[in-house]
Amino acid sequence: MKRPYTVVLIVPTGIGASIGGYAGDALPVARAIAQTCDNLITHPNVLNGAQLYWPIPNAYYVEGYGLDQFAKGLWGLQNVHQNRIGLILDRAIEPELRLRHLQAADGSRATLGLSLTDYMVTDAPLEVELRTSASGASWGTIGNPDSLLRAAEKLIQQAQAEAIAIVARFPDDPDSLALENYRHGKGVDPLAGAEAVISHLIVRQFSIPAAHAPALSPLPIDPALSPKSAAEEIGYTFLPCVLVGLSRAPQFVTQNTIESIWADQVDAVIIPESACGGSGIISFSQQKSLIIAVENNQTQMQVSPEPIGIKAIKVNSYIEALGLLVAHRAGISFESLNPSISSLRCLA
């Protein structure tokens, strides 16, 4: 009996990926790849589409810091039937906007059958600030991280939360050029980098699944809106996809069990060709995993595999990557699929 075929799909957040840099626009890629493998491991930036999401039975929803720890071989992934989700709301969220998020959470319980604990409001505003690096990537800070950690700790210890969803109030800047570009399918998501900082903090501290949804005032209707950004424009909150993802997110484990998945079981990793500088892909490159670099998914990072010593097969598109996965899983040499094949040579 063959062991399960496992693929990791990475599209780093906040770097302006032309596929996966917008509102869940890498979800079709994930759905297609899931058909080629037994296990698909990916992260919220790929699967989150605000009000829109898709149940992929064989997908593992793994927060970025947790994915890095998994890639290093420090944590394994343990599948679950359902997580009990604790919800944290930033004290800075206005009463009406807070109510919108609570209604989204209650709707997820009533309509989707998700399990949530009672929620927490942070004891101080989180004070999110947005930043942009010299490369054009987005990042950010929170002024009161201890307030976030106290809320999470209470949900875990007193409400038995097994995963944490965070909603932080993000600055409104409706007239910014970065937001205008993003809404028109260009540039970098100005929120994504700060979102990653928030979820990383929870996962690093408590070693449980976490993901974030920003709270923002609704924007005026834009008739020139890009389809890639449209998922974020159809509701008052981005929370539903986060709750759905966390409901089945694997738990992190440090002891190997028969049911857990570890980095040395990963058969292939797919990454944008220009985004190979992250901790996760560097760790995976030291395993026996096939690394597939997709050239037409351009990013702001401009870190190709060769200069940093990563051996990768480059393909033009995710459609080509799907073909490689099918052949790899079948145990077929890529060379044999070409019009010509060279003869064997004698090893001196």
From TrEMBL:
Protein name: DUF3326 domain-containing protein
Listed InterPro entries: DUF3326
Pfam family, one: DUF3326
Domain of life according to the entry: Bacteria
